[in-house]
Amino acid sequence: MGRSSIADSVLDVMSPNEDDADDEEGFSTISLRINTSVHISSNNNLVCLNDTPASHANAIARAVVQAIQENSSGQCGIPMIDEDGRPRPVKIEVDAGITVEGSGNIVGNENVVNQVLRMRSLARKRSADDDESDTPARLPKRRREESGSSGSSNNSP
């Protein structure tokens, strides 16, 4: 059997069991808690996200594991074993959830946001056009024809 990698250790720690908590009491655990959650409140918000919360959390966890590997004791960084030579457990918690409160809120990627903006723009234009058609059009004022000043053929003898 080969040695397990840090990534495998992290994945084992990320699926916690209640028994594991008792086993780790004597160890010098490396614990990280990262909160990148998004809380949207009020109404009619338009929020653009590049990734889903799950893929965002996975990207963060991968970046942390990579940073730990690159900065391990072999690289003169974080010691991954304790004073007795036992591997140090790594606990990573990533909260990347989304909470939306209110009405009319739109959350999506750039394409979704652009589509919503186009639809809202068209709706506003239509509304403005409808408002213009509801108001009576002003007719140009007619000039009164004065009987003495115009050379009208109606008044000729």
From TrEMBL:
Residues 1-24, 122-157 are annotated as: Disordered. Residues 148-157 have a biased composition (Low complexity). This is Uncharacterized protein. The lineage of its organism: Eukaryota, Fungi, Dikarya, Ascomycota, Pezizomycotina.
